[in-house]
Amino acid sequence: MLSSPNRTALSGKLPWLLSAALFFGAAASLRAAEDPASKAAYLKSVVPYLKAHCFECHDAKKAKAGLRLDQLGTDFLAGKTADTWHEVINSINAGEMPPEEVKKRPEAAQSFAVVEWVGKELKNAEKVARMAGGRVLSRRLNRDEYLNTVRDLLGLDENFVQTLREELSGDGKAEGFDRLGSALLFDGTQLSSYIKLGGRIAEKAIVESEAAPAAQKKVVEPEKEWRKGKDEHEVIQYQKDTIIPLGPQPSERKETGVEYLQPVTFSGKTEFGGFDGGNSLLRDISVPRDGYYRLRLQAGAFRGERGTPVRMRFVYLANTPLETTGEVEVKGTLDQPEVVELVAFLRTPPEGAKAGMRLQWNGFTDAIIQHPEMSAVTSKRNAAAGKVQKLAVAKAPPAEIDAARAEVERLIQEARAFAKKPGAVARVYNPDYDLAKIPRIFVDRVEFEGPIEKDWPPASHVALWPDGVKADPASLQAFFGRLLPRAFRRPVAAEEISRLAAVVEAGRKKFAMSEVAAVRYGLQTVLSSPEFLLLFEPSASGAPKRAITDYELANRLSYFLWSTMPDRELFQLAAAGKLRNALALQQQVRRMLADPKAREFAENFAGQWLHVRDFESVMPARDYKDYDAALRDAGAEEPLAFFEEVTRRNLSILSVLNSDFTMANERLAKFYGIDGVEGPDFRRVALKPAHHR
């Protein structure tokens, strides 16, 4: 712990945050009833109460129900003392003790004083026991910490690492957080899963092949997918023997591609819509395994008078937990299309499900509308049919139902008459638009390829074995000499390095493993070891309290603010013994908060403290039409961005309760009725009384 002078020096800088970072998991060492005020209350209120109302039945002579209160101590951490005191106040609260037939009941104020004292001491004892008198209890890494540590230790791809999440057991919670040792259980089943995961990670981190795995490719030429012949007529849904020419079409086939005037959508006027049905260009794609996939298009666009760039979007496995989207601006022209490319990490669909890739663009989705006369008849007919159904359900008089059915038939005949008019069509160009001035897009080739490797060999392999994998003794000593201090997050002994080198050698000799397989086996052993999986600050049994080491402080800081292992700078300061210096410590906290990894602090601390993780457990009713995925995501981001702003600027913690600003992007500001906010990025937005914070 910091000495008093150092704590005073820091008090005006990062008071609440630094205290939390340094002492998260720590507590005062004062034991129950040793506090002078508590001891005074015990002697004044509790002892006289016990003598007057309890000892007669619960002393050495009687000890009714096997309970002796004359020997009940005040050390709530000793034996079953806390349990016994808990039983005492339960009996007092229930009005069971002392029995009325034995003694006169004590006054309520006397009983309240005893119950209040015991309650405070129970809470204090629980806190002291949980926090181990200032020491952090040994605990395993929670899921976020494990995944982040694996990523940073080995330089693995973030998306690959996140695929491991579903294979890890869920984390328990204590005090509302998933980073306290009492909730993070560790058993044989979990160890088996860590060993299995360690093997997968080792295979990904260290590769054997000199060439990247081959990728599959699908090529689509839109003009060959364009099926104009089938779309010249459309069967009217409510009268199968009545056909009517479709009218204007949302796309036109060209010699080398297709030009699109209007995106197709089935949910009203939206920003993005599909290409002739939303899925025709990529309806047969395949995602055989998790990985990166490349979508490349030869396309051009005309943005029209609207001015907004024409953009293409893909949506993969829409409305599922694996949904992935990506957008790109189309910069080529209709006459001179250019190649645009998107690379995204896609997950394999659940068993039995199709890949489901949708390609969309942001044109005017109402450039072509239903013929007004046709639209009117259709709306009336649908309303009349709905009325028939309601009357039938309500068991209305037969004459009333027959009259409603007659109205439906009349409207069908009206639609049939319209369809027979010369020049009648189902849809027309929207008269509100000048067709020469609205956006268009041209696509003449679509390629989908993957899985692809962005770099080969992967960055993890290059970082671990820059000169190639070698399993000779000298190379293994050097390899584990570099790896273990970072993996175990402390200095390591020569014996530890030799022990891991021996594991690799045993794999080569006893199991005839190749060099790469044996080195992977050694890495798997490291990732499955307690030194990697657990956070602990070892002390000999019965040893006096000691100051934490610089390495232990580095771990506390890093896992609190970043939910991952210390970086190079923290390790260097710890090795030099400089991290506990007050100025250096303050500088490191500021540096760490400015780092992008501090996002983990917001998500894993504030996200649990403010229950942001639970936001999606309750969904608004469908009647709330304004609620969409963008608003859902913005609503969850707001408290996290706000917390980041408070910590980044070292604002008072009271800002959480009373501030004159919030964090918002355009979607959220629009929902709140705040003007002047544009774009998807969150920024500080001033609040006025009219905004009703």
Task: Note down, in words, how this protein is organized.
With 693 residues, the protein is of the alpha+beta class. It has helices at residues 4-10, 15-23, 36-53, 81-93, 108-131, 143-154, 158-163, 188-205, 222-225, 372-393, 398-419, 459-464, 473-487, 494-510, 515-527, 530-533, 550-561, 568-576, 582-594, 599-609, 629-648, 666-672, and strands spanning 139-140, 216-220, 233-235, 243-245, 251-253, 258-260, 273-274, 291-302, 311-316, 324-329, 338-346, 357-361, 368-370, 427-429, 440-452, 534-535, 661-664, 683-686. The protein contains 22 helices and 18 strands. A hairpin with a 7-residue loop joins strand 9 and strand 10.
Strand content: 5-15%
- N-to-C span: 40 Å
Tell the overall outline: extended
Helix share, percent: 40-55%
- Tell me about the largest β-sheet: 6 strands, antiparallel
What class do helices, strands and sheet pairing give? alpha+beta
Low-pLDDT segments, ≥5 res: 1-33, 228-238
User: Whole-number radius of gyration?
Assistant: 35 Å
Average predicted local confidence, pLDDT: 81
Counting DSSP H or I runs of 4 or more residues, the number of helices is 22
Count of distinct strands: 18
Reconstruct the topology from this structure.
Blueprint (H helix, E strand, L loop, with lengths): L3 H7 L4 H9 L12 H18 L27 H13 L14 H24 L7 E2 L2 H12 L3 H6 L24 H18 L10 E5 L1 H4 L7 E3 L7 E3 L5 E3 L4 E3 L12 E2 L16 E12 L8 E6 L7 E6 L8 E9 L10 E5 L6 E3 L1 H22 L4 H22 L7 E3 L10 E13 L6 H6 L8 H15 L6 H17 L4 H13 L2 H4 E2 L14 H12 L6 H9 L5 H13 L4 H11 L19 H20 L12 E4 L1 H7 L10 E4 L7
Antiparallel strand pairs: 1-16, 2-15, 3-4, 5-6, 6-15, 7-12, 8-11, 8-15, 9-10, 9-12, 13-14, 17-18
Helix pairs in contact: 3-5, 4-5, 8-15, 10-11, 13-14, 14-15, 17-18, 20-21
